[in-house]
């Protein structure tokens, strides 16, 4: 979190309608950061989020609220949990208390219980500390009551926050588990409870891997490896700011085992042997050995839904970076969420890796889905292949299977000007086995010195095929490569006159096996 809020836009700043995404959630006219309390209940996905109800920079932290049936079409609701004289409402999670363990609901009608961080203000009885508190809803998430016994868990720490709570069932029993952070100690702390009100300490994890910045917004959940329920591993997501692989904020994860008390990472999850900090020398090479949810600049605070249907594990991240978050050139809204992404684990060596796909199912068959190009196979060299232009009311999903063959580089030039001088370039370079996303000439990049950037993710082709799924939505490019094994997300702010999209191969011919473009609105 940044405490700098010096970049408030003047009240008269013109609305930047051209950058408002078609598919990604934005608040109508206020600021947002982390997704909070992601929960599926009553046929709806609830997205609560860090919100400033009174402005479009960070401050007055409260939980905003939106709902969706398909994770694509969102309806904004009034603020769910508001800050007051005593506390700001920092990040946290929501559970459905099916067994009415808290007593806030009834056996037949479970309450939704929010576990959030009280960031206590000067003058309050806990001033200077962050502690965990409860609020509950008995009307399906529309109105919330703070619990009179708050806070329910304090360590008298100034940086104890971001509780993610889940129901654990295993050899040690059935109970609630909370994963939270001691942010400045790069530690995830685990607690257990029978009733969500009284919490007992279980264990600590960290520091490990990327530990140069504060650890924030953890999540811990089981996933079947390659969909085999007999082979389940646990994933611990730990967001870090600054010190992520692309600079500033980012999400790392560990794969391992949780026995109801302690999380133990697989050796292959660690960038250095246990007990040795991989990053003592702050070596970029060591950072690149950590496991990253996203190799881009703009995917932070990713956490998963609780109670999601069919056992699906779906995350949403904040599509931004604390390096420049308060300065994004949009008005009256500022910041958006990433698309919802479904997670799977796939075996790799002695451990496993996450793969992610954007949840776009709600768009197929939707009247807004329009297949505007279906092409391939064809050879490409020298001349560029022109894709349909971006249009104002839609996002574009570009899907390509390409054999780079002898080409030195294969590039998608996205949101490009007619003369090719401005645009965002996604390039695969076989020789270095890297996928880069370069936004240095993407349009408006001058609002912050740290914004112009190029990000590189390692990517080794299987059978010589580059598989890309690219979602371009007005102010963002999200890339899911090799079926979601490598993900790269960057914000971009193209200027008027940059609708063009092109595909090029340089230094040799490439074969395009298939290429489709779908417009979604
Ligand atoms: C992460 C974060 C959290 C905190 C919240 C405050 O972006 O700093 O650790 O709870 O934002 O808005």
Strand content: over 45%
Number of helices: 1
Overall form: globular
The Cα radius of gyration reads 23 Å
Please describe the structure with a list of short key phrases separated by commas or semicolons.
single chain, 521 residues, mainly beta, Tachylectin-2, Chain A, Jelly Rolls, 2 domains, 6-stranded antiparallel sheet, 1 helix, 34 strands, 1% helix, globular, disordered N terminus, binds beta-D-fructofuranose
How would you characterize this protein structure?
The protein is an all-beta fold and 521 residues long. It has 1 helix and 34 strands. It folds into 2 domains: 344 residues, Glycosyl hydrolase domain, family 43 (Tachylectin-2, Chain A, 5 Propeller); 154 residues, Exo-inulinase, domain 1 (Jelly Rolls, Sandwich), CATH 2.60.120. 1% of the residues lie in helices and 47% in strands. Strands 22, 23, 25, 30, 31, 32 and 34 form a 7-stranded antiparallel beta sheet that branches. A 6-stranded antiparallel beta sheet has the order 24-33-26-27-28-29, with no helix packed on it. Strands 13, 14, 15, 16 and 17 form a 5-stranded antiparallel beta sheet that branches. The longest helix has 6 residues. It is globular and about 70 Å long. The N terminus is likely disordered. The site of beta-D-fructofuranose has 13 residues, from strand 1, strand 5, strand 9 and strand 13.
């Amino acid at each position: 979190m940044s405490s700098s809020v010096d970049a408030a836009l003047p009240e008269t700043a013109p609305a930047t309608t051209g950058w408002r995404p078609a598919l990604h959630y934005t608040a109508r006219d206020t600021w947002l950061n982390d997704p909070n309390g992601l929960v599926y209940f009553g046929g709806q996905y609830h997205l609560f989020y860090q919100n400033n109800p009174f402005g479009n920079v960070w401050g007055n932290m409260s939980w905003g609220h939106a709902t969706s049936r398909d994770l694509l079409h969102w309806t904004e609701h009034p603020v769910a949990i508001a800050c007051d004289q005593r506390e700001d409402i920092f990040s946290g999670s929501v559970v459905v208390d099916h067994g009415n363990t808290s007593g806030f609901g009834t056996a037949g009608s479970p309450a939704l219980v929010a576990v959030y961080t009280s960031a206590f203000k000067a003058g309050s009885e806990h001033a200077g500390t962050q502690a965990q508190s409860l609020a509950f809803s008995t009307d399906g998430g529309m109105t919330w009551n703070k619990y009179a016994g708050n806070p329910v868990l304090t360590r008298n720490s100034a940086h104890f926050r971001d509780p993610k709570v889940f129901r654990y069932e295993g050899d040690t029993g059935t109970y609630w588990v909370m994963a939270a952070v001691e942010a400045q100690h790069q530690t995830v702390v685990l607690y257990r409870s029978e009733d969500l009100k009284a919490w007992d300490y279980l264990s600590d994890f960290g520091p490990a891997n990327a530990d140069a910045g504060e650890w924030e917004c953890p999540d811990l959940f089981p996933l079947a490896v390659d969909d085999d329920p007999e082979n389940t591993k646990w994933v611990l997501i730990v967001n870090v700011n600054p010190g992520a692989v692309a600079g500033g904020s980012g999400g790392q994860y560990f794969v391992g085992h949780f026995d109801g008390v302690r999380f133990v990472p697989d050796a292959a999850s660690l960038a250095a042997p246990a007990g040795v900090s991989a990053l003592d020398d702050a070596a970029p090479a060591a950072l690149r050995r950590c496991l990253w949810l996203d190799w881009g600049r703009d995917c932070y605070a990713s956490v998963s839904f609780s109670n999601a249907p069919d056992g699906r594990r779906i995350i949403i991240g904040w599509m931004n970076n604390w390096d420049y978050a308060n300065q994004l050139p949009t008005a009256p809204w500022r910041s958006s969420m990433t698309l919802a992404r479904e997670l799977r684990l796939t075996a790799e060596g002695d451990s496993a890796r996450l793969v992610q796909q954007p949840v776009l199912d709600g768009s197929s068959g939707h009247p807004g889905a329009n297949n505007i190009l279906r092409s391939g196979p064809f050879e490409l060299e020298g001349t560029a292949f022109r894709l349909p232009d971006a249009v104002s009311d839609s996002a574009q999903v570009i899907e390509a299977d390409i054999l780079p063959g002898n080409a030195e580089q294969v590039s998608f030039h996205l949101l490009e000007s007619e003369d090719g001088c401005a645009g965002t370039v996604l390039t695969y370079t076989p020789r270095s086995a890297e996928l880069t996303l370069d936004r240095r000439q993407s349009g408006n990049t001058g609002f912050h010195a740290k914004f112009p950037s190029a990000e590189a993710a390692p990517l080794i082709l299987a059978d010589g095929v580059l598989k890309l799924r690219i979602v371009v939505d007005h102010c963002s490019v999200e890339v899911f490569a090799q079926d979601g094994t490598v993900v790269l997300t960057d914000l971009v702010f193209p200027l008027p006159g940059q609708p063009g999209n092109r595909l090029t191969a340089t230094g040799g011919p490439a074969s395009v096996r298939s290429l489709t473009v779908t417009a979604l609105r």
